[in-house]
Amino acid sequence: MTGVPDAFQRLWTPHRWAYLSGQDKPADDSEGECPFCRVPGLPDEEGLVVARGEHAFVVLNLYPYNPGHLLVCPYRHVADYTDLTEDEVAEVASLTRSAMRVLRHVSHPHGFNLGMNQGPVAGAGVAAHLHQHVVPRWGGDSNFLPVVARTKAVPVLLSETRGLLADAWEQAC
Predict the structure, then answer these.
(1) Which secondary structure element, helix H or strand E, spans residue 107, and what is its range?
(2) Spatial distance between the Cα atoms of 41 and 39, rounded to a whole number of angstroms
(3) N or C end of the chain: which has fewer CB within 10 A?
């Protein structure tokens, strides 16, 4: 029956396979395997970096919950929030605030989810490198897909979102 049409409307998300298969997730605490250690060495467009600070940077989540889902990461490979220096804590907080301002300016969300998952048991996908989630939320942004199909439809390409946010960063901050 391959190729025979049926009643299902399929939403193909092959890019999710990298996440599901564990691609680019560090196997241990080795800095060489960490995607958050690798990204700052890439050009901003390629690494999806939206903004850079002295101690931390802002990058789009490769597997976003919503369009504009950002991660604020210290450059230093550290797993636990309590191990950050005072300067790193201050810059992660400052970049988080700036990320919210930029997202409000660009896409007018109704609210945000902010958070850090500390350790695999708490849901950290990359537990070896601390990162703060900044997830824009809109009324009604949840639909049947996450509940029924464990799938999230994101209607904007990451490269387009990165460009919009990076362009707006200076104006909104």
Answers:
(1) helix 86-107
(2) 5
(3) N
CA distance 104 to 111: 9
Give residue 73's identity as a one-letter amino acid code.
C
C-alpha torsion angle, residues 83, 136, 43, 167 (rounded to 10): -130
- Token pair listed for 80: 């636990």
| Structural domain includes residue 59 | yes
**6 within a domain of the structure (yes/no):** no
Quick check: 63 and 146 in contact, CB under 8 A? no
pTM, 2 dp: 0.73
130-158, pLDDT tens digit by residue? 999 999 998 877 654 554 455 566 667 78
The catalytic position among 55, 69, 131, 133 is: 131
Nearest to 100 by CA among 44, 42, 173, 23: 173
Q: 89: part of which helix (H) or strand (E)?
A: helix 86-107
C-alpha closest to that of 39 among 27, 20, 24:
24
What does the pLDDT look like over 87-114, one tens digit per residue? 999 999 999 999 999 999 999 999 999 9
129 an active-site residue?
no
Distance of CA 155 to the CA centre of its chain: 15
